[in-house]
Amino acid sequence: MPSGEHESPIALAKLDPGLVTWLLAHLFDVKVPDYHHARTHPTDVRVLVPRTYHADGMLLYCDAADQPVLAAVMEVQRRWDPTKRWTWKLYVAQLETELKVNAALIVFCPDPGIARRYRGMFEFEGLSLPLRPFIFTPTDVPLLIEIDVARTHPALAVLSAICHGGDPEVDAVFPALAEALQTLGPKKAILYYDIVLAGLPQAPRARWEAFMSTAVDPRYHSELFQRIDAQAEARGKAEGKAEGRAEGEALGEGRSVIRVLETRGIVVPDAIREQILACTDHDRLDTWLQRAVTATTTDEVTRP
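and the corresponding structure tokens:
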């Protein structure tokens, strides 16, 4: 499974906090309190000892007066780490103490085996303060093919596609996913579309792009991709060389990496910007795009 899939629930929840409440209600049968809106919350948890713990994501669900009625801590866990028994409790306890509100811990484990180990770790806490993490895997996310549901929950449609990216039946979600994206405004749709590209493996990603370019009219690429494709085609025709289009595509991929970072509020230094735009290695650019969805610094994107 591609690395972009692993962090996608966090990125999608930040774009649409309703994804978290859907997961709580439908996967874990949790009654979510009524709320007016949701906002992100700083993910750093500080203690008196000079050390900061950093959660992957935090959201606050608020009433009409902007008072929190529910908090959510989101984690993506790819590896076994027994210290999570204590740090996860710290995240939840800090939020509940600070805000005087219940906090749900939602953990996405791409590996079902790792998920089972974490579930087992919290089954018998002994004398320790009990914690109930809501742990789910790609197989827990339904294959969403119902168009009306996808239109109502676009983030869930994206999550479903990338969670089932390696399944033979993943193409069945494409019509519903396309409809879901068209319910969004252009700027938001581009962000969702980039998450789809970063999260799908190479073969289904190519089929997804082919579906969008043939079944959806006009072609449903981001504005940036459309412009770069047009420039590459013009250059290729003028020069009579295939290199023109390849160069344009690489430039477009590089600019897409930068755009995702800047949209997420991450400053891209000039040196890193030049490095990204100068790169012509499609595999490397693809890796950088996947990392850009969840990275907190540009160094995390371009690291070897």
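(Above: one complete record from the training split.) The CA atoms of residues 62 and 80 lie 33 Å apart.
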